Amino acid sequence: MKYKINNYLILTIIIFGLLYSLISLVNHYNFRTYALDLGAYTNAMYDYIHFQWNDSTVFNEIKENLLADHFDLYLIIFSPLSLIFKTYTLLIVQIFMILFGGIGVYRYFSISKSKYNVALLATIYFYMFFGVFSAVSFDYHSNVIAASLVPWFFYFFKQKKHITTCIILLLLLISKENISLWVAFICIGLLFEYKNDKISLRYLLTFFLISILYFILITSVVMPALSNSGTYPHFHYSSLGNNPFEVLKFIFSHPLESIKLLFVNYINHPLGNYVKIELHILVLTSGLFILFKKPHYILMLIPIYFQKLFNDNYEMWGIGGQYSIEFAPILAIGIFSVISEFKNIKLLKIVSVIALLGVISSTIRVMDNTVIFTSKSKIRFYQETHYKRDYDVKTVYEQLNKIPDNVIVSAQTPFLPHLSLRDNIYQFPIVKDAEYIIYSNKEVKYPLNEKEFSIEIKKILISNKWKTIFKSEDIVILKRKIL
Questions:
Q1: Taking a C-beta distance cutoff of 8 angstroms, is the pair 102, 56 a contact?
Q2: Burial, 230: exposed, middle or buried (Cβ in 10 Å; 0-12, 13-18, 19+)?
Q3: Across the strands, what pairs with 438?
Q4: Is 119 left (phi over 0), alpha (psi -120 to 50) or beta?
Q5: pTM, 2 dp
Q6: Is 4 helix (H, G, I), strand (E, B) or coil?
Q7: Taking a C-beta distance cutoff of 8 angstroms, is the pair 241, 253 a contact?
């Protein structure tokens, strides 16, 4: 069947593409992207395009293969684009892939004709989801790309284009090590959707086994082998156990306690109160309750809930950053799959409006006022403060452009992404053999606090190893003296 382009879909893509660009690209221009993670990933692309592994020295004192931190092969694939789009590459790719993911949602619902345009509404829902806006407001992350491919996995599988589905599966697996576990649960959920189709069931079971085996292989063998410590670095679930087997044992032997942990601030961090509740409320407001009619879609979200809410880091629990993007494709497809089955057109319209109003209100809440701290200037594209800084951005660019491409740099976190297309660059206060140091007293001091930052700067200035080649109230650039 020939696919007909919908003018309303094109308009929707243009509108959201513009909104995402106003958030993400403006953030980068205004130095609201950081060493972690855009700077580190852009530096990795530089290495990959030069046929060398990245050693994580952007943020690590000791060299370690970046794949030991996250087994992400997308950066290798995207690296040639850095020759064209420079330090904006990953942000542009991320925006493009989110828009592409929305088209996947549209195509999925366009398979079966509806008297009401469910396909377009589901696409708008996907684009409008709060997790999407939060993700584009914070650097680049490969799980965003993976989440944008999930609708295409659904689409090609429904079309019984199994070879193409296998290609999408492969692309999902190589995105990030934990995505494979999510894919396994997606396959489990789809078993209920295709329970009467024996061929589809065989494919889904095969995909499930491949995903589980890949997850175990990468997290238990490959990443520990690449790591200096010989371990997987992101297992932070102390409330459940010290390894996956202890976690599973705890969950099955203490089910009520495990459920409780999904709602409470068990680490007693003062900033962690009500963060989980906020997530639950916003996801419910976005229409999760509609999935009670198709609970297997909720099943697909189990690893997302668990990796977020059982984590020892309270920032993972909340609605900020890239940590909620995986909800978007599952909720969009699940909710509108329920809606599309309504025979009563009036009921279909009412529930569609409820879902859209819910997701819009949740996104507005994320932009306006949240329990967990989020930098509102990074996401409020509708306010003047988003487009301005309290220093002269033009002057900073003029000075950064004078830094030679072949020198080693130690840069404060917001400046690092703009200089990361080079062989060696460090996030200050890592200096080592750097030839230049770049910092500003007006910028964020991460990973140091204000006092620690001042101490480090004083040490450098009194060491007599550096000369100031530019100094203003906005930026300071030091060059190592030649002895």
A1: no
A2: exposed
A3: 411, 477
A4: alpha
A5: 0.96
A6: coil
A7: no
